[in-house]
Amino acid sequence: MTNIGTLVADDVRDTIPGISNEVENNFMKIISVTKDFIAHTLHTDTKKEVYECLKKNMFHFISQGIFDEAGNLKKTELLARLESVDGKTLFPSTFCPIIEANGLDNIFDQLVVDKAFEQIFYRKPSIPCSINVNPSTLNASFIQEVDRLYDFYLINPSQIIFEVLETEKIDDYDSFNKTLFELRKRGYKIAVDDFHPLGNHNALCIENLVEIDTVKIDGEYMKGLYNKTNTEWTVSDFLKNIENIKAKHPGIDIVVEKIEDEGMFLFFRNLLAHSHVENVSFQGYYFDCGSDF
User: Fold this and answer.
1) DSSP helix/strand/coil, 285
2) Is the Cα dihedral 132, 136, 138, 141 positive or negative?
3) Do 233 and 198 form a contact (C-beta atoms < 8 A)?
4) φ and ψ at 112, to 5 degrees?
5) For residue 279, what pLDDT band results from cuts at 50, 70 and 90?
6) Which helix (H) or strand (E) segment is 255 a member of?
7) CA separation (Å) from 103 to 44, 234, 274?
8) Domains identified in the chain, total number
9) 276 near 239, Cβ under 8 Å?
10) How do residues 238-277 score in pLDDT, each as one tens digit?
11) Distance CA 158, CA 73 (A)
12) Within a domain: 50
């Protein structure tokens, strides 16, 4: 009798042409082992939709630009959105908890990176593209997969930024930095996403990271600071922490996230310029609400 795991394996091969053995094997380990796991994954309609999207590689990217202080487009972030069989778009707030709860984070990252390389190859954007990945995804196996993608697509590594999500604590920074070093040695850039200037809010310890090119300041923090909704967050503390980042990582790019209107943009642009903070960019709905990539 054909089991569910075999059926899923066939679906993976049929719907993801050119998928590497590494990705397929990892995918199989997690979602194709037993009926019990599949039954658990399909416990609700939403879980079923997420499972079907992953199984059939049904997702696309929304591109949101990142702009300098003069409003010039400098790079873009590729944001994954799942597509259900009935054409409905599933957003990260819906599918990420399900992916995390079922241990699919790293596999989803690999599928996203695979598809991002493919889309960048065909669309040939003129600016670098940022791809989100979880810290635990960045290991020797991931580097092998990236090398395979480079050999296949021959994309200039400077076109790709791996954006490390603020989702997990890192136990071994020496090993993690070695992985980042290998990626940067190949020409890829590294960004840290959702960094909170107050250190106790972060999963990642930026002082322990030595191989990064960009820090993106947490958007909720920026909104809270601008709207003065939290009295513990002060402009002086914010600037002091930016200075500390710059001292630790000279020449690093700073991206201010979730800029929602002109007033917020002018506030942070003038504040950072007055404090002589260089290499600053901005991202948010004020500049770009995102479009299909």
Assistant:
1) coil
2) negative
3) yes
4) -65, -45
5) very high
6) strand 253-256
7) 17, 38, 45
8) 1
9) no
10) 898 898 888 889 899 999 999 999 999 999 999 999 999 9
11) 16
12) no
Q: Can you spell out the DSSP letters for 67-87? A: EETTS-EEEEEEEEEEE-TTS
Q: Which two tokens stand for residue 217?
A: 């300041």
- Please indicate, yes or no, if residue 230 is contained in any of the structural domains: yes
Q: Is the pLDDT of residue 65 over 70?
A: yes
Distance CA 255, CA 217 (A): 6
Residue 24 lies in a domain: no
Half-sphere exposure at residue 23, Cβ-oriented, CA atoms within 13 angstroms = 26
Torsion-angle region of residue 228: left (phi > 0), alpha (psi -120 to 50) or beta? left
Give the span between the Cα atoms of 63 and 100, in whole angstroms.
Answer: 23
Which of 106, 115, 177 lies closest to 141, judged by CA?
106
Backbone conformation region of residue 87, classed left if phi is above 0, alpha if psi is from -120 to 50, else beta: left
Q: Specify if 54 maps to a domain.
A: no
How far is C-alpha 271 from the geometric centre of its chain's CA atoms?
27
- pTM, two decimal places: 0.82
Rg value, the chain, Cα:
20
Q: Which residue has the tokens 């972060």?
A: 202
What CATH number corresponds to the domain at position 119? 3.20.20.450
Packed helices 92-101 and 105-123: angle between N→C axes, nearest 10 degrees: 130
Strands (DSSP E) found in 21-128: 59-68, 73-83, 89-90
pLDDT in tens, 119-169: 999 999 999 999 999 999 999 999 999 999 999 999 999 999 999 998 788
List the domain range (segments joined by +) for residue 199: 60-292
CB 269 within 8 A of CB 282: yes
